[in-house]
Amino acid sequence: MDTEIRIERVLPATIARVYDAWTRSELLARWYCPNLQLALKVDADVREGGAYVVEMGPHVARGTYLEVEPPNRLVFSWKWDGTDDAPTRVEVELTEVPEGTRMRLSHTGFATAEDAANHRMGWDPELDRLAGLLSVPQPDPAADRG
User: Fold this and answer.
1) Which long-range contacts (CB under 8 A, 24 or more apart) does 63-70 make?
2) pLDDT digits over 79-124, tens only?
3) Could you give phi then psi for residue 82, rounded to 5 degrees?
4) pTM
5) Rounded to whole angstroms, how far apart are CA atoms 116 and 122?
6) Could you tell me the pLDDT band of residue 61, with boundaries at 50, 70 and 90?
7) Would you state the torsion angle of the CA atoms of residues 120, 51, 85, 22, taken in this order, to the nearest 10 degrees?
8) Long-range contacts of range 91-97, CB-CB < 8 Å, 24 or more positions apart?
9) What is the model's pLDDT at position 51?
């Protein structure tokens, strides 16, 4: 069994909007939890060496931003509070494509295939919610100037 997660999706939005969804706390708080029943709070200091905390009801994950290269790349550590597990590593790479933005996510460093599979079950609904958030049309600022 595999101890790494690799997911690729094309999202219906500009690279800037996708990057914002990954780096702005108020946007992360709209999609970054697999369980809609849990209260979600995100605090993110998006800069190399900056920290983040994600509270999903009673579950808390935290880490440090290791690489921040707007709008193409974001790398951060991931660790659940209350476990002795070593931190894992999440890499998000964004590339503009004709249909929007190709997102390649890899989450590596799991001790077991079971742990990787459990995290995969979390990423899938989260990324569905991200795609839904990004599919909502944004107002055109030029049209608002009348």
Assistant:
1) 63/87, 63/90, 68/23, 70/19, 70/23
2) 999 999 999 999 999 999 999 999 999 999 999 999 999 999 999 9
3) 80, 10
4) 0.91
5) 10
6) very high
7) 0
8) 92/22, 94/15, 94/18, 94/19, 95/15, 96/14, 96/15, 97/10
9) 98
82 Cα distance to chain centroid: 22
- How far is residue 69's CA from residue 95's CA, in Å, rounded to a whole number? 12
Cα 108 from chain centre: 14
Give pLDDT tens digits for 42-60.
Answer: 999 999 999 999 999 999 9
Structure-token pair, residue 90 = 């999440």
Instruction: Identify residue 37 by its one-letter amino acid code.
Output: Q
The amino acid present at 117, given as its one-letter code, is A
Residue 99's identity, in one-letter code, is: E
